[in-house]
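Deliverable D4.2, example record:
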Amino acid sequence: MPSVPSPQTILDRVRRDVERNALRARNGIKLVAGVDRPGVGCTPKDVVWERGRCQLWHYRREGGPPAKRYRPPLLIVFSLVSRSYILDLTPGNSFVEHLLDAGFDVYLLDWGEPDERDAQNRLEDYVDDYLPAGIARVLEDSGADEVNLFGYCFGGNLALLHAAAHPGSPLRSLTVLATPVDFRHMGPMADVFLKGGLDVDRVLDADGNVPPSVVVQGFRTLTPTAEVTRYVTLWERLWNDEYVAAYQAMTGWSDDHVPFPGAAAKQTVEMLVRDNAMVRDRLRLGGRPVHLSDITVPFLTVRADRDHIVPADASAPLVDLVGSADKHELRLPAGHMGLVVGRTAARTTVPTIIDFLRRRCDEVGAPAAAGEGARV
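Output generated by the structure prediction step:
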């Protein structure tokens, strides 16, 4: 027969449940009122260049400049439709913070919040204009003659297009994280244009851009039951202050998007989604053909098995499409955000990514080997 809990055990459980319910009530009120929200994007940074809504940020450690142990600097290219603070979520849970602590000199291109002035921006504007200008400013600011380029999500697509279209760009290496290339596997977000025949013009706002509400709804269609599941989990752990703070930060980011410039959105749908041009080698920018096989710098692609935004099948062909002799794929048991934030990221994924990046760098103070690129 199963053992019967003692009266003291029962009393302890009742006390625990009463305490947790009181904490649930307190934290629930705070959530509804929007008070005590965690600070996001807190790592100190300087704006070292800007053009239009775009800014180039140079991160530094709290209280002073970073202890730079590796060169050349790392330039992160972020997505066009999301807020970049997911990479610097909260103190202690920040990919950028981990990079700084590891000794990297970190810059980030943040695209800002597009408005009517950006509606006519095409992919060429980012690939052929903003990115080269940002790279040039990093070199000037750091005194380096190369950068390690790092693209996150759709920022990885921009980085790929830049590296392919500009084989002379001063890149030491290229790393992309959670970056789709086979858009047939992007689920409902692609199917609405592929099978549903939706025209991008039908979802543009008065500014000529795809509004954030459409972007958010598009992501929600990928996991239609996630909204219910996350509230059930929240209720179960609403008593835990640490969990509630992390929940506010991560769900706040997942619901916090920016407009997608209209011309770039149309080009993305026509070329990358409907024509599947990355996989089919039919990319064109400014009327000229662009081939991923022209990428020859040391290359790393990182993808996640449980990524519901960029499914593993959407990023799987990438490593075979680039022309680099020194190329690698890192497949990790994580989700889209779990690659860069959370306990699993801190313990496993981020250290693994950092180790790959470190092997592609020179140590500060040590002479670089002639002709040496990334080391594996």
